[in-house]
Amino acid sequence: MAILALFVGHWVLEGFFQSSFHHRYASHRMFTMSRRAERMFHFFTYLAQGSSYLSPRAYAILHREHHAYSDTARDPHAPGFFSNVLAMMWATSERYSAHVVGTSSPEARFLGGYPEWPALDRLGSSWMSRVAWGTAYGLLYLWLATAWWQFLLLPIHWLMGPVHGAIVNWCGHRYGYRNFQTADASRNSLPFDILTLGELFQNNHHHAAGRPDFASRRFEWDPTHTVLRLLARAGVIRWRADVPAVAAAA
Ligand SMILES: [Zn+2]
Ligand SMILES: [Zn+2]
């Protein structure tokens, strides 16, 4: 039971920070916040992602490429171009890593407007940090596990960020229903996206990439947007009236 709570807690926290900070804030600039709030958000994202920390800058560049070239050969993770999800994850991680270390040459329009904290990016992306977090998860499991099979969940903790990304990028462009005719293959995989907290409304999102609420029909629910609305009401974030086009330079 404790393991299940640990797993669900980590899953939900990681999903929320990846969806709100990496996707909606860093990549799409849907809202603004003070410098101090941004740093706190960034640090909490590091804590939530732990061993699988993703640089918001590299994520944003990769994600803007995805929107600009969705489901074409230039999309960094179009499922139609891969025979299985692991091959797609591998190619995505190579492109992402090139953005982190600076060996890629992204188009200028994909750059800028994302939170940058080089020291935290360096720490979070270091093997020392990744192994330390991974060891901490393992020790928690040694302490709390009550059956051997529970250890099968450990690799998901280690790769939590990429696992969320793979579910969204694979299923969200392959399985589900469409509300809008878009030029890409985006789908809405779940009407209540409690699995990835709103990210699986890919069809709605690709139709209107600047819209903060990924749900669009009455029966759909985007949990991350609900939390962000509360943060906006509390004054932590402010919605932008004019969300910039996703691929525009800052
Ligand atoms: Zn997409
Ligand atoms: Zn997006």
Give the helix/strand layout.
Layout: H1 2-27, E1 31-32, H2 35-49, H3 56-68, H4 85-101, H5 118-125, H6 127-144, H7 154-158, H8 160-171, H9 202-207, H10 223-233, E2 238-239
Antiparallel strand pairs: 1-2
The structure holds zinc ion (2 copies).
One zinc ion binds at residues 66, 70, 172-173, 186, 202, 206.
What report would you give on this structure?
The chain has 250 residues and is an all-alpha fold. The protein has one domain. The protein has 10 helices and 2 strands. A two-stranded antiparallel sheet has the order 1-2. Helix 1 (2-27) packs across helix 3 (56-68), helix 3 crosses helix 4 and helix 4 (85-101) crosses helix 8 (160-171). The longest helix has 26 residues, at 2-27. The mean pLDDT is 96. Bound molecules: zinc ion (2 copies). One zinc ion binds at residues 23, 27-28, 63, 67, 205, 209.
